[in-house]
Specification:
It comes from Sellimonas catena. By secondary structure, the protein is of the alpha+beta class. It folds into 3 domains: 38-152, no CATH class; 172-311, no CATH class; 328-431, no CATH class. It is 17% helix and 39% strand. It contains 7 helices and 27 strands. The protein has helices at 2-27, 46-59, 102-107, 154-159, 162-169, 209-214, 362-368, and strands at residues 38-40, 72-82, 88-97, 111-112, 131-142, 145-152, 185-189, 192-196, 204-205, 230-231, 237-243, 246-252, 260-265, 269-278, 281-291, 294-302, 308-311, 318-319, 321-326, 332-336, 342-346, 354-356, 375-382, 385-391, 399-400, 403-411, 418-424. The strands form 6 sheets. Strands 1, 2, 3, 4, 5 and 6 form a 6-stranded antiparallel beta sheet that branches. A hairpin with a 5-residue loop joins strand 19 (321-326) and strand 20 (332-336).
C-alpha cells in the first residue's frame, strides 16, 4: 500500500509539474504579427512572397508552445490574388484549429466551413473541423525586402476603393411612406426608426435603430427593410443591427417599452439580412465577408437570446443570399444567386441541404412566352401553409402600372410548391 501511495503521489506531482511547465511556455508565447512581417524579395513575385510570409505565420501558430486560443493543427493557402498595382494582395486560406472555441475563431478571424471541404487541399482532414479565413495585405518592397504594412478584411478593402468612396460622396437615400396594409410594421421618419402595433396610431422608437439597422456600407441608408429582415409582433419585435463591434440583435418583448440587445458576433455588415423566430430563440442570416463583389453569408442561431452558435451552410458557401427563413431549430431555407436563385432546404440543422426546384407559374409562361420569375425574395409560414415570393430580379420588365409583378407560390409540405397568384409591392415612395 505504501508503494502504491508513493506511486500515486509521484504521478500527481509529475502531472502538476507538467501543467506548470506548459503554462510557463504559454505565458512566453508572442502572438505572431502580420503587419511588419518581412521576407527577402529578390527575384520573387508578390504571390511568392505572400506564400512564404503565410507559411512563416502559420508555422508560428503550431506546436505545444502555442496556447489553445491561437494554436492550429494545419493550414493551407488556397488562393493568392493580386488586387491592384498598389501592393494589395488577397489571401484565401483554410485552417484546422487545435481547439474549437470562440477565442481562437475570434483571434484568427475564421468562419466555419460547415462540412464544405471538397477543395480545401488538406487531405485526410475531416471537413467538419475546417475553418475559412480571408485577409487583404499590402506589400511594400524596399532594398530587396518585402514588408507587410497593412492588413484588413476583404470588405474593408472594398470600402476604401475609389469607386466605393465616390458612392459615399454622392449619397441618395430614398425615403418611403409607411405601409398602410398592415397593423404591425415599421416606419422611418427624419432619420429615426419606429415600430407601430396599431397601424400608426402610436409609435415606439428603436434606439439608435436608424444608424445601426439602416446604414449601408456605402454610406447610404436603406429605408426599405425587406420582409423577412425583421420581426414585429406584440410578443416579440427584433431587428439586426451593425456597428463597429459587429452584429447585434435589437429586440423588445413588450411592444417597444424596453429594448434589449444580444451581441451575435464581431463580424458581419449590412447587406441583405434575414431573421426568423424559433421557439424562445432566433436564427439570423447576414453577410459575413465580401470578395470581388460577392457577399458571403453565415447562419447564426440562439436558444436563449444570449449565446449564439454558427450553423453549417452545407456543401458550398452562401453567396448573395436573396431570402432565408427557418421554421424551427431543424428546418431552414435559403435562396442564393444573382441572375437566378438556387433554393435549398435543411431538416437537420444544416448538416445536409437539399436543392428544391423553383416552381413555375404555367399560366404566366403561356401568356408571356417565357418565365419572368427567377429570384426568390421571401419565404414565410402562415397558418401552417408555406409561401414563397419569387420576383424578376434587376432586369425584370413584367409590370403592372409601373410596379414589378411577383409570383406567390404555396405549399402544404414545404417542398412541393404551386402557383397561387400574382402580387405587387405596396411600399410607396414618400411624397
Amino acid at each position: 500500500m505504501k508503494r502504491l501511495a508513493a506511486g500515486i503521489l509521484c504521478l500527481a506531482g509529475a502531472v502538476l509539474l507538467c501543467g506548470a511547465w506548459t503554462q510557463f511556455r504559454w505565458n512566453q508565447f508572442e502572438i505572431p504579427e502580420i503587419i511588419g512581417s518581412e521576407i527577402a524579395g529578390v527575384g520573387k513575385s508578390e504571390d511568392e512572397a505572400c506564400r512564404e510570409l503565410f507559411s512563416d505565420y502559420t508555422d508560428a501558430l503550431q506546436g505545444m508552445n502555442v496556447p489553445y486560443e491561437y494554436r492550429i493543427y494545419d493550414a493551407v493557402l488556397n488562393q493568392v490574388e493580386v488586387l491592384d498595382g498598389n501592393g494589395y494582395v488577397q489571401l484565401d486560406y483554410t485552417m484546422v484549429p487545435a481547439a474549437v472555441n470562440s477565442e481562437i475563431i475570434q483571434n484568427l478571424e475564421l468562419v466555419y466551413l460547415g462540412g464544405q471541404g471538397a477543395d480545401h487541399a488538406l487531405s485526410g482532414i475531416d471537413s467538419r473541423y475546417l475553418y475559412r479565413g480571408q485577409m487583404v495585405v499590402r506589400l511594400e518592397e524596399e532594398n530587396g525586402i518585402y514588408k507587410i504594412t497593412e492588413k484588413m478584411r476583404p470588405v474593408d478593402y472594398q470600402i476604401q476603393s475609389p469607386e466605393f468612396q465616390e458612392e459615399i460622396r454622392t449619397p441618395q437615400t430614398q425615403h418611403y411612406a409607411m405601409r398602410t396594409d398592415r397593423e404591425e410594421t415599421y416606419y422611418i421618419d427624419d432619420g429615426v426608426l419606429y415600430v407601430t402595433y396599431d397601424g400608426g396610431e402610436t409609435f415606439a422608437e428603436v434606439p439608435d435603430g436608424y444608424e445601426r439597422v439602416c446604414r449601408e456600407t456605402n454610406g447610404l441608408y436603406d429605408e426599405n427593410l425587406e420582409d423577412g429582415s425583421y420581426l414585429i409582433s406584440p410578443e416579440f419585435t427584433a431587428f439586426l443591427g451593425f456597428d463597429s463591434e459587429g452584429t447585434v440583435m435589437i429586440y423588445s418583448t413588450d411592444q417597444g417599452a424596453v429594448w434589449q440587445e444580444s451581441r451575435i458576433t464581431d463580424l458581419g455588415y449590412k447587406a441583405g439580412t434575414y431573421l426568423s423566430r424559433i421557439g424562445d430563440g432566433c436564427v439570423a442570416v447576414f453577410a459575413m465577408d465580401r470578395s470581388l463583389g460577392t457577399d458571403y453569408y453565415g447562419i447564426w442561431m440562439t436558444d436563449d437570446m444570449k449565446t449564439w452558435r454558427q450553423i453549417s451552410t452545407g456543401e458550398s458557401m452562401m453567396p448573395n443570399v436573396s431570402a432565408a427563413f427557418w421554421v424551427d431549430a431543424q428546418t431552414g431555407y435559403y435562396a442564393s444567386g444573382q441572375e437566378q436563385s438556387v433554393f435549398y432546404r435543411t431538416v437537420d440543422q444544416g448538416q445536409t441541404w437539399q436543392e428544391i426546384t423553383l416552381p413555375q407559374a404555367d399560366a404566366v409562361i403561356e401568356k408571356m412566352g417565357y418565365n419572368p420569375f427567377d429570384q426568390v425574395e421571401q419565404f414565410y409560414l402562415e397558418n401552417g401553409v408555406y409561401y414563397m415570393v419569387v420576383g424578376q430580379g434587376d432586369d425584370g420588365d413584367y409590370t403592372d402600372q409601373g410596379n414589378l409583378i411577383k409570383a406567390l407560390f404555396r405549399s402544404e409540405d414545404g417542398e412541393q410548391f404551386t402557383f397561387e397568384k400574382e402580387i405587387t409591392d405596396s411600399l410607396q415612395e414618400a411624397g
